[in-house]
Amino acid sequence: MPHDAAPAAPSIPVIDVAPFIAGGPAAGDVVRQLEAAARDTGFFLVTGHGVSPEVTDRLYTLARAFFDEPQDWKVGQGREATLEGGVSFSPLADEALAATLGLKTPGDYKESLNFGPRLKGGRWPAKPDGLEQAFADYFAEMERLARHLRRAFCAAIGLPEDHFEPCFDSHLSALRVINYPEQDEAPLPGQLRAGVHTDYGFMTILRSEASPGGLQVRTRKGEWLDAPNIEGAYVVNIGDAFMRWTNDEWVSTPHRVANPPGDRKGSARRQSIPFFLNPSAETVIACLEPFMRDGKAAKYEPITYGDYIALKTSQAFSKA
Questions:
Q1: Residue 13, number of CB atoms within 10 A of its CB
Q2: Whole-angstrom Cα distance, residue 62 to residue 53?
Q3: Phi/psi of residue 182, each to 5°?
């Protein structure tokens, strides 16, 4: 590097995973890129993933129609939490994600619809028609992409490509559509669209969109980076449970969703679709052997994922 050249600004890598999915000699390069991203930033974008744009657009459109319904109707939807595979609605400011990091803030300025085939929810709303099927179809698309990424991660670690598969036989993955409404009034002090947090599970696959007030990722130096928006790409990040599996060598990076600037012009409404890939409740999160080479000790005691997620969830929704 020339003496007068400035160091390259940190960035979130964009990785074309199509060569890995297809197989062949270029697959190894994809694995190396994923391994570097997992260690350096814990965040990356994937293209070439094969997720159906039609299935994605259908869920986006129907969820938006739900969020456009009156608030007093929405709050009555999916509140029973007794049906496996039902839906739940989390109203505005119901969740404060920063609490999982021990930070006291107002509830996040967002509302969401939440679904998992093995998670408890309420009855699906009568409108819009097709919402339940749209969730199920998109969930299946995410499961396929997640399997490809798990195989790639195994290759990067040096494990058999099916090493993690028993952990996901009865997985507790969740699909959420989040609506970030217009902020016609100033947010409360310390209130963000989503407070700073890390994700709890194995990994998250996010369909986002460009808008004022978006996803920001914190670097190891404490700088906040705006996640790029690339049409058709998905943001992927390592979760806390996977970081624990890797003895903290792969990074579950703090991130947040910022408020739109006060001087913005035009709409700042935003909708995102995160898929949280979580193992089964019985899965034991214990340090993987490749991360204990050369006498390196495991940092954490083994814990089941069920116990781990219960602790994290109780922190996020605590009103204390």
A1: 15
A2: 14
A3: -60, 145
Joined together, the tokens standing for residue 85 give 């595979």
How is residue 118 written in tokens?
């093995």
What gap in Å lies between CA 134 and CA 129, rounded to an integer? 10
186-203 tens-digit pLDDT: 889 999 998 889 999 999
The answer to whether 111 and 179 are in contact (CB under 8 A) is yes
Contact 267, 181 (CB under 8 A): no
Q: pLDDT per residue over 288-300, tens digit each?
A: 999 999 889 999 9
pLDDT at position 119 is: 95
Q: What is the pTM of this model?
A: 0.92
Beta strands in 219-320 (DSSP E): 224-226, 234-238, 255-257, 270-277, 284-285, 303-304
Q: What is the pLDDT of residues 267-290, one digit of tens each?
A: 788 899 999 999 999 999 999 999
Report how far apart the first and last C-alpha atoms of the chain are (Å, whole number). 52
What phi and psi, each to the nearest 5 degrees, are found at residue 10?
A: -65, 150
The Cα–Cα gap between 298 and 288 comes to 9
Say if residue 233's pLDDT is above 50: yes
H-helix segments, the chain: 18-22, 27-40, 53-67, 71-74, 131-157, 240-245, 305-316
Neighbours of 228 (CB within 10 A): 16
Phi, psi of 196 (to 5 degrees): -60, 135
- Per-residue burial over 198-222, b = 16 or more CB atoms within 10 Å of its CB, e = otherwise: bbbbbbbbbbbeebbbbbbbbbeee
pLDDT of residue 213: 64
